[in-house]
Design a protein that fits this description.
Structural class: alpha+beta
Number of helices: 11
Helix content: 40-55%
Largest sheet: 8 strands, mixed
Strand content: 15-25%
Radius of gyration: 19 Å
Order of helices and strands: HHEHHEHEHEHEHEEHHEH
Distance between the termini: 30 Å
Length: 274
Amino acid sequence: SSDVCSSDLLGQQLLIDNRGGAGGALGAELAAKAPADGYTIMATTSGVIAVNPSLYQKLAYDPRRDFVPVAVIATLPNMLVVNLDLPAKTVPELIELLRKNPGKYSYASAGNGTTLHLSGELFKTMAKVDMIHVPYRGAAPAMQDLLAGQVHMIFDNIPGALAQSRPGKVRALGVTSKERTPVVPDVPAIAETLPGFDINSWTTLTGPAKLPPEIVARLSELSRKALESDDLKAKFFDLAATAIWRSQADTLAYRESEEKRLAVIIKASGARVD
C-alpha cells in the first residue's frame, strides 16, 4: 500500500511497482537485487518469505540471506465456507461428517502451497479427518465450482468468501485465526473447536540484506507511525485485514518460527512446485 510509509512521513514521493507471478517469487527476486540504500523496499506476504522456501524446489532468493525484515504491518485470516447442500452447519458437525465419510468430501483452494491450501491441510491434521484437496488457479474458479457443487468446501480469503456467504449462497463455518476477527465477529474461530488452530497470511516490509541498520530502524518506526492512521486501519479493514505492527526483531523471529511451522504442514501435504 502506498500509505504504509506515506509521502508525508517520508517527505518524498513513493512509486508502487506491483510485480506478480510465481507466488510472488519474481517480485522478491527483483527486490533482493535492489540497491541497499533504503529507496527500494518490498511489501509482501507470508507466502513469499515463509512458505515459498519449503514449497519451491528451486528459488532464486533466500529470505534469510537476501532480505532484512523491517516490520509486519497486517494480518489476514482465511475463512472456511461450505456448499449449502453439505449437511454441516458448524465446525464440530463438519468434523463429525468427515470422520464418518473418509475420502468422500473435497475442499478447494487457490493453488498448492497457498495459505488457503495449508489451512485445509492443518485442518485435516488437527481434526484427524480425510478429505480430498482440489487445487485451482486462483480463488475465483474455486468458488465457482463450490457454488456449482463440484467441490464441497473451500478455505478462501475473507473478502471472496463474504461476497458469497452474506447473500446466503454458501455457509461460513469458521475463520482460521486463533481468535475471531473483528471483520466478521459472528463467525467462530476454528480454534474454538480445534485449540491451537492458527494460520494466516500476513503482510511484511523487507529490505535488501545489506540495508544499513539505521535505515531499517527508521523505516520500521515510520511504518509504526503510519499504522496509527485511522484511514489506513480502515483500508486494511475493508480488505478484511487487521493492521498490526511488529518490530524488526519480532518480525525476524516471527518469520523464522512461521517458516518452521509451515514447513511441517507443507511436507505433510506433499505440495511441491518445480
